[in-house]
Amino acid sequence: xxxxxxxxxxxxxxxxxxxxxxxxxxxxxxxxxxxxxxxxxxxxxxxxxxxxxxxxxxxxxxxxxxxxxxxxxxxxxxxxxxxxxxxxxxxxxxxxxxxxxxxxxxxxxxxxxxxxxxxxxxxxxxxxxxxxxxxxxxxxxxxxxxxxxxxxxxxxxxxxxxxxxxxxxxxxxxxxxxxxxxxxxxxxxxxxxxxxxxxxxxxxxxxxxxxxxxxxxxxxxxxxxxxxxxxxxxxxxxxxxxxxxxxxxxxxxxxxxxx
Length: 259
Description:
CATH superfamily: Metal-dependent hydrolases
CATH architecture: Alpha-Beta Barrel
Order of helices and strands: EHHEHEHEHEHEHEHEHH
Strand content: 15-25%
Structural class: alpha/beta
CATH class: Alpha Beta
Number of strands: 8
Helix content: 40-55%
Distance between the termini: 10 Å
Number of helices: 10
C-alpha cells in the first residue's frame, strides 16, 4: 500500500540490520523503497542492495552538501544510470543552509545532474534548502521539466511547490509533516494536488511522530501517510494508493514489480 520514495538504507545504522528493516516494511505494508545516491564512492553499495532485493530501487548522484568527493560528469551519471534498477538521477540540488561562501560549484553540479537526467530520460531527485529561488531558476534554465522528478523532503512554501509542479515535478513529504512545529508545511500538504504527491522517510533521518528521536526507517513512512490523510480528511488507504501510484508512474516501475 505504501512506498518509501527516498531512503538511505545503505547507511551503516540501517545496513547493519537489513533483515529487521525489511520485516518492518512488510508489517507496515511498505512494498517498495528507493535508496538514494549521495556520492559516487558509495554507489556500488546502493546498486548491490537494489540487485539483491526485488523491491528496492536505486538512484545515482552527488548530494550538494558533499564538497570533497568525486565530481561526476554528465557522462558518468548517464553510464551508471544505465543499470536496470537505477530509476533516477540524484540526490542533487542546492543547499545554502549547511554551506556558505562561493557555492558556484553546487550550481555547476546541479546543472550537470539535470543535463544527465535529460540525456538518459530518467527523473531527478532534487534537494533544496535555503536556496529555492536559485533552485527553481536553474531548473528553468536547464529545462529540468524535460526529465521531471521530485522535490524531496519538501519544506518550502506553497508558492515554491506550485512553481515546481508547473515545471512538471512532484512534491514529496517526509516525517517533518508530523512535527508539532510544522503547521505551515501541513498547510502545503493540504494544498498540493494528490496526483503530484509522494511520501518518504529520508531514513535514517527525520523519524516521524510517534518515533521522533529514533533512527528512522522505511517502515515508518506509514505515519507520513496517516498525517496527510488526517490533514486532507481522506483515508490512509487513499493516500497510500495515490502516492504509490504516483511513484510507479514517475519512476517507470510496474506496480507489481518486486512486490
